Amino acid sequence: MSTPSRARRGAALLALLPAAALAQPVATLPPIEVEAQAPGSLTAPSIAEQRRALEQAPAAVRFIEGEDFRNRYAFTLRDMLADTPGVFAQNRYGQELRLSIRGSGISRGFHLRGVEVLQDGIPVNLADGSGDFYQIDPLAVRAAAVYPGGNALRFGTSTLGGAVDFITPTARTAEAENILRAEGGTFGTWRLSGQASRVFGDWDVLGSASVAHADGWRQHSRSQYEQFNANVGYRISDNIETRFFAGAYIVRQQLPGALSLSDALNRPRMANPQALSGNQARNVWAERIANRTTMRLEVGQIDVDSWLIHKRLYHPIFQVIDQDGLTWGVAPRWSGSFDLAGLRSELVVGARYFAGTNDADQYLNNRGSRGRQTLSSVQRAQNYELFAENRLWLRPEWALVTGAKLFRSERDYQDNGRGLQNSRGAVTLGRTYDGFNPRIGVLWQPRPEIQAFANITRSTDVPDFSDLVQSTAINTGFVPMQAQRAWTVEVGTRGRLDRFGWDLTLFRSNIRGQLLQFLINPDTGLTAVQNAGQTVNQGVELAGRVDLLRDVLAEGDRVTLGQVWTWNDFRFRGDARFGDNRIAGLPPHVLRTSLTYARPEGFITPVLDWVPQGAWADYANTLRANSYVKLGLEVGLTLAPGVSVFLDARNLTNKRYVSDLGTIADARVPGTNTTVFYPGEGRSLFVGTRIAF
Questions:
Q1: CATH code, domain carrying 479
Q2: How big is the CA angle at 6 (ends 5 and 10), to the nearest 5 degrees?
Q3: Least confident stretch, 84-88, 132-136, 237-241, 454-458
Q4: Which residues, including other chains, have CB under 8 Å from residue 260's CB and lie 6 or more apart?
Q5: How close are the terminal C-alpha atoms of the chain, in Å?
Q6: Where does the TonB-dependent receptor plug domain lie (predicted)?
Q7: Could you tell me whether strands 163-167 and 178-185 are parallel, antiparallel, or unpaired per DSSP bridges?
């Protein structure tokens, strides 16, 4: 074993122990010594470099290192992001969850809207903006960066939710050449994964694979996930490097469906009868190829990203959704630093073109098999974007950030006139969206470990095809929705002072045309989407920690208290029907408290998750989920260099609660089906071991 390998592993362990104490590590306080980090390369900078660059943003951006979730059963995005303030990620079953940042897609009860998911800075979303999470394997993630709202402008993103970038390791940044992991737990859960990497002169190659199976806590929720990721880099010269990324993903997930509130709390393990009779499921086969080529110039550098994603979906629900789509794109970007009138200026200028086509067919659901065809259609999306962001250091401790994005998004829908719903021949409909999104911000850094910031950004959310193509019991058609537009103001501070660390942001978004979803029939999954009038999303995002005790039982140990609090206050403003009611979908308060005892060879962390008030299920604010408190326990132990074991116990009191829900207009209306609640999992225990060599 080489000395650098030992150094990297030792640094990783030292980082893990204090990080476990804080549910969200403070962005300005990298706990890893830079000299122990792998140096990275042109196309994949080291984790320390990426953290350092992110910290200079005058915004509530947050960096999560893989060590923070390494000794948990990290299977979903929630397991990676649960400790991040401002991010709401709640599981339904398998890897299906709701991801919302600052109310993005607040009422979207499935998949993804309003947040761009990136892998190594390259989009994972489809061309219309929709997306899934199955391409993100937590065991193949080295770090994650969260950019709320317009703070993701340097990637070309300017939606209300912003972007989350999942950074995968390369052979030059990997912790070790070989990593093996085995896990098992309740509900018939097991997972095996492995990673191997090598450097051959100017070439480097890394591959990782995971296979996960679970019988599921609920009836009819068995799942099987097979995920493969790889990248190959070639250093053409000291100033030019190219890297290819490849991935393949197979998902087989049974769907147990939603329940009434009474059933969710009293008979939570049952499946919805319609989910059983229709053998409802979500099966996906997807492949992804991407490339980044980086050229370092005398002034700055050029990065050119390109990608191709193929996705096949077989999804028996109210009908059988059968889709086959292709997404492709290219994104050149120049970044550099130079003097402007004697002041240091850092500039990013870029463009993105990405497009896609999706053959979208539907059939009657014959117990999970195709019946008679009801729809034959093609969905096409094209996006043209130009963006720039400049950071000007007016004084050593003051920076002014300005930026803007110019975009044009085209959505075309072709009904081929085959099936039960249309016999008139092919019909093509569409809508084009144009916009200009500016931003301005300021950063004050009086000391290297303390920052304060303020900024204002404009965001635009273009409807995806789940919004634009809406179904009733007898018809599916194109509905030309408006884009959702918002101005967001945020102020905040982050830093460390002796034993204390903090990350605090207050934000307010004034929104026009917010895209809100209503379940028409929860049993069938039929939904309608409408543009609201004026709405306001505002809240507080807080993460803090304090070392209560140091050198308690041995030199170098500590007891640390960590607290995460997200407050969501999302409301209508003078709506004709709902007045100033709260917008349904998310609970107003989400808190997570941890108390960690850590020492060089391991840690133990009791965790408390508290939702004081459940989310409203209807916009009339007459039906809501329950409040709850959950207790968990996380334990990690290093047995030998590179060998560790962990225990992750969840919901120790077997609390019955609602983890997520769909939204309806008014639960009081006679005949309204309120089967919209998804019960959270009961008591569970997962154990695993990890070997790095």
A1: 2.40.170.20
A2: 120
A3: 132-136
A4: 674, 675, 677
A5: 8
A6: 55-163
A7: unpaired
Show the tokens assigned to 658: 């609602």
Band of residue 545 on the pLDDT scale cut at 50, 70, 90: very high
Closest by CA to 149, choosing from 444, 455, 418, is 455
**How buried is residue 349: exposed, middle or buried, by Cβ count under 10 Å (0-12/13-18/19+)?**
middle
Q: Is the pLDDT of residue 109 over 90?
A: no
29-70 pLDDT, tens digit each: 333 333 344 678 899 888 888 888 777 676 778 888 888 888
Residue 1 has a CB neighbour count (10 Å cut-off) of 11
Give the per-residue pLDDT at 30.
Answer: 35
Q: Which of 249, 250, 248, 246 is nearest to 206 (CA)?
A: 246
3-state helix, strand, coil in the chain (%, to 5): 10, 55, 35
Buried b (16+ CB within 10 A) or exposed e, 169-191: bbbbbbbbbebebebbbbbebeb
Measure the CA–CA gap between 311 and 639, rounded to whole angstroms.
42
Q: E-strand spans in 557-681?
A: 558-572, 589-599, 602-611, 628-640, 643-650, 658-661, 677-679
pTM (2 decimals)? Answer: 0.89
The two tokens of residue 591 are 């808190």
Which DSSP symbol is given to 683? S
Burial per residue of 507-526, b for 16 or more beta-carbon CB atoms within 10 angstroms, e otherwise: bbbebebbbbbbbbebbbbb
With H, G, I as helix, E, B as strand and everything else as coil, classify residue 25.
Answer: coil
Question: Distance between CA atoms of 80 and 66, rounded to whole angstroms?
Answer: 8
Domain count, the chain: 1
Per-residue burial over 589-614, b = 16 or more CB atoms within 10 Å of its CB, e = otherwise: bbbbebbbbbeeebbbbbbebebeeb
Matching residue, tokens 């895209």:
515
Alpha helix locations (H) across 432-475? Answer: 465-468
**What CA–CA distance (Å, rounded) separates 400 from 98?**
35
d(CA 362, CA 372): 9
Distance (Å) of CA 231 to CA 144, 168, 299, 498: 18, 9, 28, 41
CB 182 within 8 A of CB 689: yes
* Dist CA 534 CA 539 (whole Å): 17
Domain that holds residue 307: 3-692
Q: E strand or H helix at 373, and its extent?
A: strand 369-395
pLDDT of residue 98: 84
Output Rg (C-alpha) for the chain, integer angstroms.
24
Q: In the beta sheet, which residues pair with residue 118?
A: 123, 165
Identify the pLDDT of residue 621.
97
Name the amino acid, one letter, at 490: E
DSSP codes, 97-147: EEEEETTTTTT--SSB-S-EEEETTEE-S-TTS-B-STT--GGG-SEEEEE
Q: What is the DSSP letter of 154?
A: G
Residues present in the chain in total:
693
List the single range of 72-76, 303-307, 556-560, 634-638 with lowest mean pLDDT.
72-76
